């Protein structure tokens, strides 16, 4: 809608609007199941690592709890709105709602990218410098690292929000995606979008590419250390763990880089939506599977928590 024939006051999320009714029903069932599963797994991870088991009182599980919290926030920022739009025909969102959604996507996404780099560094210190691990990664350091990730997310969100909405909007108000994604929204502004897109590109180098380089280098050092010390069975286990962690990292960072570091001319509905789905729903779902549910100590903690629940039931009856 245009106010006074010139200014956009709301946007229309095209998303899956052109899909048939049967396709929309299938997508609704699929995404609702994935969203529910993701929320349940991340919620369970937060519960297990934060309250139920003192044996998980170590930096790695402190980081995992915050990673799951970020995933819960991230998926809730985009997917519920998409589920609603798969049911109703009115896909309009107000200007303020679009700004708010973009801020939280920026904030939580940047915080998660940085936190994953800190988690990789934590594993690097634990495996390569085990004797100094407690001194290097103390509880105080953990709190500072997590606080740094959240702080950068909050500040970076403000910067990217200003960059995206610095120009007025007076063109087409149709967003060819299922949520307000910055490069698409910037392309609808009245002025030249190149400054804003370059600013986002430069920012992405700092908050996406740099953490990814740190993660890859950390795991390369871990593999080198394991190859020089561990037995063949230990090597196989470490290779499997590193490969699964790097798979999740590649999912998140490559999809984010495509969305925020590619030239504007390469974007399009058929290209944007798959990559957007990859980092908004697939990655938050894979994180607890790879980092938590494949972890032996967390699985044992879940069994102990389930055992305590079963013992408490007869007493309450």
UniProtKB/TrEMBL annotation:
Species assigned in the record: Gorilla gorilla gorilla
What name is this protein filed under? Olfactory receptor
Among the record's GO biological process terms, what is one?
detection of chemical stimulus involved in sensory perception of smell
Main localisation: membrane
Family annotation (Pfam families):
7tm_4
The record's subcellular locations are: Cell membrane
Name the UniProt key words of this record, in alphabetical order.
Cell membrane, G-protein coupled receptor, Membrane, Olfaction, Receptor, Sensory transduction, Transducer, Transmembrane, Transmembrane helix
The record's function comment reads: Odorant receptor.
Q: Which SUPFAM superfamilies match?
A: Family A G protein-coupled receptor-like
Q: How does it sit in the membrane?
A: Multi-pass membrane protein
- MF terms in GO: G protein-coupled receptor activity; olfactory receptor activity
Question: Which family, according to UniProt?
Answer: Belongs to the G-protein coupled receptor 1 family.
Keyword Transmembrane helix present in the record's keywords: the answer is: yes
- Extract one GO cellular component term from the record: plasma membrane
- List residues traversing the bilayer: 25-48, 60-83, 103-121, 141-159, 204-227, 239-261, 276-294
Task: List residues of the G-protein coupled receptors family 1 profile domain.
Answer: 41-291
The answer on whether this UniProt entry bears the keyword Cell membrane reads yes
């Amino acid at each position: 809608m245009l106010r006074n024939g010139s200014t956009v006051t709301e946007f229309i999320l095209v998303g899956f609007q052109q899909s048939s009714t049967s396709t929309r029903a299938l997508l609704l069932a699929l995404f609702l199941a994935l969203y529910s599963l993701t929320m349940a797994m991340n919620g369970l991870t937060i519960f297990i690592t934060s309250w139920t088991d003192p044996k998980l009182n170590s930096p790695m599980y402190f980081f995992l709890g915050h990673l799951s919290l970020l995933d819960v926030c991230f998926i809730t920022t985009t997917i519920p709105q998409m589920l609603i739009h798969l049911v109703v025909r009115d896909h309009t969102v107000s200007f303020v709602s679009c700004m708010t959604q973009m801020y939280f996507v920026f904030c939580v996404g940047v915080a998660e990218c940085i936190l994953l780099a800190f988690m990789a560094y934590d594993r690097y210190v634990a495996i390569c410098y085990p004797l100094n691990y407690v001194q290097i990664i103390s509880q105080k350091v953990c709190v500072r690292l997590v606080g740094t990730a959240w702080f950068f997310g909050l500040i970076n969100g403000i910067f990217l929000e200003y960059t995206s909405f610095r120009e007025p909007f007076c063109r087409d108000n149709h967003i060819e995606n299922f949520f307000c994604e910055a490069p698409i929204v910037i392309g609808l502004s009245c002025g030249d979008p190149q400054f804003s897109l370059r600013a986002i590109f430069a920012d992405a180098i700092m908050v996406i590419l740099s953490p990814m380089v740190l993660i890859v280098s950390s795991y390369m050092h871990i593999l080198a250390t394991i190859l020089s010390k561990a037995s063949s069975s230990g090597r196989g286990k470490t290779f499997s763990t590193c490969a699964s962690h790097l798979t999740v990292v590649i999912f998140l960072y490559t999809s984010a880089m495509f969305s925020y570091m590619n030239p504007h001319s390469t974007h399009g509905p058929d290209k944007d939506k798959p990559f957007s789905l990859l980092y908004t729903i697939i990655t938050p779902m894979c994180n607890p599977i790879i980092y938590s549910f494949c972890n032996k100590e967390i699985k044992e903690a879940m069994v102990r928590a389930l055992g305590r629940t079963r013992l408490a039931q007869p007493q309450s009856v």
